[in-house]
Design a protein that fits this description.
Elements lengths: L27 E5 L7 E7 L2 E12 L12 E8 L14 H17 L8 E11 L4 H15 L9 E8 L2 E4 L3 H6 L2 E8 L4 E5 L2 E2 L3 H38 L1
Parallel strand pairs: 4-5
Antiparallel strand pairs: 1-2, 2-3, 3-5, 6-7, 6-8, 8-9, 8-10
Helix pairs in contact: 1-2, 2-4
The protein binds cytidine-5'-diphosphate.
The site of cytidine-5'-diphosphate (CDP) has 13 residues, from α2 and α3.
Length: 246
């Protein structure tokens, strides 16, 4: 969260700097099968975020001491390209990307039927090409689509979304300015069929009432995002059917 600022992030009519109302999402577009060599892939544009995901597996986990005899291990690797942010990011993993890789791996593992693939590994590469706040939840949303596109059995999709507090109001899907200068940011990952929470982090402070308002805003939005995920996957399926028919 940013320091105190004079920037007015939301006006008296509840209109935000980018013209959105409090519970409006930025535009979201998802495509599947964008990479030929991956088992599944996706590309998401969420606001100004542009993120590519490649999925490989399930394949035998290597090195062998990493294998779990009861289930597949899910290894997500979140990486930000050096050119993805305003100030060049030093290439390679840092504490932030290690943390995001861990929470995204755990969220995906809750949705994937890992028990069907003992000793296997599923690799999920999340490459942020352009960052504009909310990259972890946009990456998670796209990763879930790429896993499904790889044909890996899942209990449910995983949908990511954030809510936060700006100008003392609770708003959905924080923009870059809101993330930098707002009062709180709450990224969440949800399994939309059961409303189970598989990722939750918080930056800043929210009262209990504000937290409840933020989570209910996110829960509502996940239904809309899940629909966008389904449409992306159906399109892939339709293309496959057409190719098989030719
Ligand atoms: O991206 P997300 O909101 O999940 O994570 P964050 O750590 O809250 O970062 C918020 C935003 O700050 C990112 O989306 C980037 O736009 C920006 N950022 C940056 O400019 N340089 C970094 N090294 C890391 C993040």
């Amino acid at each position: 969260m940013g320091t105190a600022s004079d920037i007015k992030l939301i006006d008296e009519n509840n209109i935000r700097l980018d013209g959105r109302g409090p519970d409006e999402l930025r535009p979201i577009k998802i495509e599947t099968n964008v990479l030929n060599r991956a088992d599944g892939s996706s590309f998401i544009e969420w606001g100004g975020n542009k993120i590519m995901v490649a999925v490989y597996g399930p394949r035998e986990a290597y090195p062998k001491h990493n294998q779990d005899i009861n289930k597949a291990i899910v290894k997500a690797r979140y990486n930000m390209a050096a050119f993805s942010v305003d100030e060049r990011k030093r290439p390679g993993p840092d504490r932030r990307s290690v943390e995001i890789s861990k929470v995204v791996s755990e969220a995906l593992e809750a949705a994937i039927m890992v028990e069907l693939f003992p000793r296997a590994q599923i690799d999920v590469f999340i490459e942020v090409l352009q960052a504009d706040a909310g990259t972890r939840i946009a990456g998670l949303t796209a990763a879930s689509v790429a896993v499904a596109a790889a044909g890996i059995p899942m209990r449910d999709m995983v949908v990511g979304c954030t809510a936060g507090k700006v100008g003392n109001k609770i708003v959905l899907d924080l923009s870059k300015e809101e993330d930098n200068f707002g009062q709180a940011d709450l990224p969440m990952g949800i399994l939309p069929k059961s409303d189970r929470v598989v990722l939750m982090q918080m930056d800043g402070d929210l009262s209990v009432e504000e937290f409840e308002q933020a989570t209910s805003m996110i829960m509502k939005a996940t239904k809309r995002i899940a629909q966008i995920q389904r449409e992306a996957l159906t399109k892939k399926y339709e293309i496959q059917q057409k190719e098989q028919g030719e």
